[in-house]
Amino acid sequence: WAYRGGFHHDLEVRDDGRILVLTHRETPGHPSLPDHGPLTEDFITELNADGSLVRHVSLLNAFARSQYTPLLDRVRVPDNIFHTNTLEVLKGRLADRSEAFKAGNVLVSLREIDVVAVVDLEQEKVVWALAGDWKMQHQPTILDNGNMLLFDNQGYGGTSKVIEFDPLTEEVVWAYRGDDENGFNSPVLGSNVRLPNGNTLITESCAGRAFEVNTEGAIVWEFVDSKRIGPAGQWQLIPTMCEMLRVEKDYVRSWLD
């Protein structure tokens, strides 16, 4: 089957086969931004396993009916006001501390307003949101320990960092930042994954590079796309690596077989 509807960036298939996916469409305006004019409105769209539409949940409406409406004052671009880039269905790892993080709610990243938020799809309402020490972020994810891992594109003096922090206290418990010896910067895109061994796999998209770091921040594995154009050190064209994931060996073996 196929369903065509302005899909972008991210999706997740739930255990029952339903699909949650980010979509957008152009709208002439929105009551929560009365002076803004035409804009691109982002939605969380739900499909059945057969591709039939269940519902669209407007992220603008979800903010407008919540206590986090003031975050809409951060809108600074005329068109793609949110540029939502990540969607994750929560598993309830923080629900004992905050009802907002109950299983089934959806974590999203809104790049253009530097905000991460949780949406209750049944209420169609933002139930938690935070603008922290990051800018143009990607790939927030809730770890098994209840902390959040996040790729901060431009919040470290205009360069990038990856941080693990408690989303309820905002305490940063771990971070990876570049230095003079190991530059680390992806102004857009980027990804981070906490691996079963405790290491973190980071995709530095604009550099065409992915690397794994341990808890001390040492690089233990690295892949750099070698297809580059221009003089060494002054590359004019670099292949963009959107995201790298590590897969189980048995899964790869099934492809080879």
Features:
single chain, 257 residues, mainly beta, 4-stranded antiparallel beta sheet, globular
Written account of the structure:
The protein is mainly beta and 257 residues long. 5% of the residues lie in helices and 39% in strands. It has 2 helices and 16 strands. The protein has helices at residues 59-64, 249-256; strands at residues 7-13, 19-27, 39-47, 53-58, 84-89, 106-110, 115-120, 125-130, 138-142, 148-156, 159-165, 172-177, 191-194, 200-204, 209-213, 219-224. The strands form 4 sheets. It has a 4-stranded antiparallel sheet. The chain starts with 6 loop residues before the first strand and ends with a helix. The mean pLDDT is 93.
The number of E-state strands comes to 16
First and last CA, distance: 27 Å
SS class: mainly beta
Radius of gyration: 19 Å
Count, helices: 2
Mean pLDDT: 93
Q: Assign a percent range to the helix content.
A: under 10%
Name the beta content range: 35-45%
SSE ordering: EEEEHEEEEEEEEEEEEH
Shape: globular
Low-pLDDT runs of 5+ residues are none
Main sheet makeup: 4 strands, antiparallel
Strand order of the largest sheet: 1-2-3-4
